[in-house]
Amino acid sequence: MEAEPGDVVIEAFGCELPPFFVERMAARQTAPVWINLEYLSAEAYVERSHHLPSPQRSGLVKWFFYPGFSERTGGLLREPGLLDERRMFDAERWREAHAVAALAGERVVSLFCYANPALADLLRQLAEQPTLLLVTPGFAAHQVRDQLGPALRLGALRAIELPHLTQLEFDRLLWSCDFNFVRGEDSAVRALWAGVPFVWHFYPQDDGAHHAKREAFLDRYLSGADPAWSAACRDLWRAWNGCGVWPGWPSRSQAEAWQVHARLWRDRLATQPDLCTQLIGFVHEKQ
Fold first, then answer.
1. Which pTM does this prediction carry?
2. Strand 179-183 versus strand 153-154 pairing type
3. Fewer C-beta within 10 Å: the chain N or C terminus?
4. Domain residue limits at 215
């Protein structure tokens, strides 16, 4: 193979480099800065392990770099100007342009999830008051169609299946909603920047490790929050992730408190340098 290492080598998400490539790294006159960019988690080990060196048999040093939610981590992906765009965004105009305009009095909820047995409970709950459910392609659309039938309606709930969206348009989908259900790490970060209440569907793992990840995030996300609504939030997240019975939808006052909290959390995260800025700074420090 012709691949040659550069001045910086980033090994992402636990995927090890092939031995021939490591040999070429070690043979360079100047060793590259080798970074192991890890998964996103709020667990305590992230802060302990961030920036730690890992000496290798080749004589090289690999550096652990962890994205995260605190000042003692590598931060989150955030493009320059993202929050300025968010502040200027017109949700109604975006929905009208995409033929998904809400009717008067409808709350707007997005759905992006893995296969989820709790979906039936969620749909029944949403159907109790006027709701427009914007459904992404794939697992979400297939399950909603199975539950609601071709009319995509139940009680006061109406659902619309969306086409595949670009990353930019997915952001705007999240910005246009009152509540977002998202799956996986990348979409959870985009939901945080949206600054509205959301529930994160963690990728299910056979050993149950996703439950520890969920609780670690909730402990951090809900720290200092009002006990009444934070308990409702935690129960909803747990049920959506297959842990506990369906708790029902948060009350109006709880939803309003959650909205305020989501904006405050977004604004606090925005005071930290973003992931790319921190990565570049770390590389310059090690070169």
1. 0.94
2. unpaired
3. N
4. 82-269
